[in-house]
Amino acid sequence: MKTVLPDRQQSLVQWISQATGINTFGVKIRLRGNDLHILCEGTECPQRWRTLSDLLQALQQTDLDSLTSNEQPSIYQVFVYGRRKGESRPKWCHRVYLNQIDKHVEQVEQALLADSENSKQPGGALIVSNETLARQGNPDAIARYLSETLSTLGVSVSAKIKLYKPKNSQVEENRLWIFCHSSYSPDASLLAEPIAQKLRYLRLCGYPDAVIVSQVTGETAPDWLLRVDLTPPEVMLKEWARWGDVQAIARLLTEVLSGLKVAVQASLKESTLHIFCTPAFDPLGTAPIPDKAACLEVIVPQLEAIAPQGLLGATIYGQKAGDSQPAWIDWLALPAAEHSVFATSPLDLANTGDEEAIVFLLERLLNPDLDWRLLTGGIRVQLLNKGDLLHIMCDAPVCPGRAQVANKVTQFIRQLKIPGIKGVRVYGRRAGNKEPFWHHGIDLEHRQRLVPEATPEFAATSQYVNDLVTAETSEPILRPDLTTEEVQTFVTEVALDWLATANAAVKKFLLGSQLFTETDQSEDLNPDAQGIKIALVWGTLGLLLTVQSDWVLGQFIARTTPSSPTVANVSPAPSEQKASLTSGKNPNEKKTFLASTSKTKSSLNQTSVFNASQFTQGDDTESGNLAAAPLKEKATATAILLAARSQMPSFNVRQLDEQLALYKQRLARTGSPPDVLIIGSSRALRGVDPAALSKALATQGYPNVDVFNFGINGATAQVVNFVLRQVLEPSELPKLILWADGARAFNSGREDITFKSIVASAGYKQALEKASTTATSSDSPENPKKEKPKEEKPETNGYQAVNDWLNQALASVSTSYQNRDLIKSLVQKQLLQFGQNQTVTSQKQPTDGNLEDTSQQAVDFDGFLPLSIRFNPARYYQKHSRVPGNYDNDYKSFQLGGEQETAFQEVLEFTQSQKISLVFINMPLTADYLDPVRKKYEQEFQQHMLHLATNPNFIYRDLSQQWPKVNDYFSDPSHLNRFGAYEVSKKLANDPMIPWPVK
Predict the structure, then answer these.
(1) pTM for the complete prediction?
(2) What is the pLDDT of residues 433-456, one digit of tens each?
(3) Which residue of 75, 309, 573, 864 is surrounded by the most CB atoms within 10 Å?
(4) What is the DSSP letter of 991?
(5) Quick one: the chain helix, strand, coil %, rounded to 5?
(6) Are 440 and 465 in contact (CB under 8 A)?
(7) 723 near 732, Cβ under 8 Å?
């Protein structure tokens, strides 16, 4: 609601008080839009006509705009109320049009002479309504006419006429501009249709369209623009009647026959139009049958002038409403019977690619209610044919919904089978906008182009018109599979026997040292007579062993790190190279821990019954290799080291710590964030291959796209929201986020174990503290270190002080203490490499329950977890229980609202504010996994995501039913392997709806 400044308001109240003679305490005013409301009250209700007479005389001599603030829009009309003090409702109300004050004065004078206090309809001059004046095309009158509706919403209106030159025309035309000012930002959908209806109701001549500009008072840029089509309804009817639209023809004939009081109904059979003339109003059935000669005299010229497309003749009937037989019949040949150019039906023309016919048919399809189209302008369709793609823009005063338009348009174009058209791209926007609010596309047949398609004129960027590029590859698999069932069982039994033997030997040795006893042994059976001697002996041996080990490690470090002993600068090399923890390390040293590598390489060149792991082919490895990206070097050792050296506290989720460490290292190496960030749960971690995606994008004209996989096992919407908004800085975010997951990540009914672990961590607390500080604060990593000693200082005791002193003293004489981090990293890496080679003979497919333990040892430097095992239901369910959907904890108490939905909305708002495109991919699932219970929840999730996809900043792509029967693409019922990840990456790169970043 608009209000004037206090000093101006006071002067306006004083002016009204002086004009009417009412005390200032009895005058109250309110400004709303272009309306001034004046309330006059006293101990007795002020006399209506006397008060109005005094006020009107003052208005004749005063410009009200001079008494209000400069920021206040012009006042078009004044509402005057009168009431007695203490009453809640006024006794009278009178509206005064400031552009007709003289007529109001004349009316009031006549009322005073006639003692109008007892007369409810006084005589005097006739007040012309704003609607009548607006029909004449005067912009000031149009603004006053619109303000009658918009002022109640606190919106003021002004109007101007500006000249503009349409495209491909040298003649300038008038364009009506309507400016709406308010103290708030009204939603366009609130004002669009009311304004469009009121403007079109005026049937203005000389204005092809009008532009509505909404602007918040005090701001320089408009909030939104809206275009209103002012084409008169009769012109719209003639356009559709020209194409043979039966309803439009009937409406036109009814209007021209209204003088004869005849109503017209029409129907179409084949190429003949049947017209029925009946009395327009005949409730009693006594009206005469329409005169044949009079009707034909009007109908025949109209049909000849219209020349409807595809209609060869017309049969005209005259009858009473409800009669089964007509009173008279006449037949008429239409122009299409003589001129072949009019004989072809609109549908046949559309099949040949006639754009005008396609536009008519689409507009008729999208505007089934003719009255609504005439009232608001309806949905307008624009076509643009670019190469083998047909671009279709649909706009209206309120943006048409994707569900309302997209499927109808694509199905219709598919049925036409237009020659040369292989794909359709549909867009929706509010009339007056350049950028579409949403986009939808399908390919009618296989298309192959190596260059992105040019941008159509009505699209915002080229991201809406990308082509599909299919780049098939026959790249061989380096390691088709791991082991067979028999070898796995054998290795497991041998390992268990070895562990049992080793445990017995270690236990015997420890008991023989007399430093350990069995847990169930009584203290009485363990005398301590020689305890002191044993302690001295073992203590001396331990000291000697420690000194010797320290010297050996020091010599080893001195040889392996000749130039740079620090490992802080470790960075992953390109995909063709191997990353090393030390700058001078010889790659040949890895052969000691990779004994099976040479065997694998030698076997690849042989055609035998052995696979890449030197084991016989089993049922899990089908004959014939599947396509996949080459395996890259594992980065887990580097991630562990970087996470250990990071000054950021842990988040209690090991994989989040290590993925974050790898991501930070990538940022430090490249100096900028990746172009595309993949995020989600284990389905993202294992389901989208960055290397394959980058390669596939390069074949489509997007070279050197940097992709990183930030998948985290068990990540829900809350975890993704926390990582994007709290963990990563805005400068560390990419241009495009691919969120790969499924319904389980949005289930608010289940327990979110991963996020609970994060909430309980020190890293989460630091992230919240960081978020509460100012945006310019960099949160120096030294601050936590300085605060911790202050908090822990009161808890230190004498023992701790002595222990710290001994540690410092021994560190000063130790040769390896200064390099303890390097020693730790070397040991960890070599143990991990050794463990990875051992798992070749015994690796099992992890499920969600144990996924975190196995995946940590296989993530590469792009954050991706490549698994080669293929899902074989017959073998898989021998080791794992088959869990139906109603017992699956991931779907427990399935609920799409709640905390996960809130987290998703926060991600959506955040990415929109950061101008980051967000794409959600519903990842593939096997038919074996989708039992009736899970399928029901998945369908519910589908509907939910399609509803959310109406947001212009959010794109939803569904791949859940892509390969339900292709088990070779899966490592378990709900997770892809590296072959499936390769296919998903290739399919995403070919998706025309994903706005890939262009460098």
Answers:
(1) 0.47
(2) 888 888 888 888 876 654 445 445
(3) 864
(4) -
(5) 45, 15, 40
(6) no
(7) no
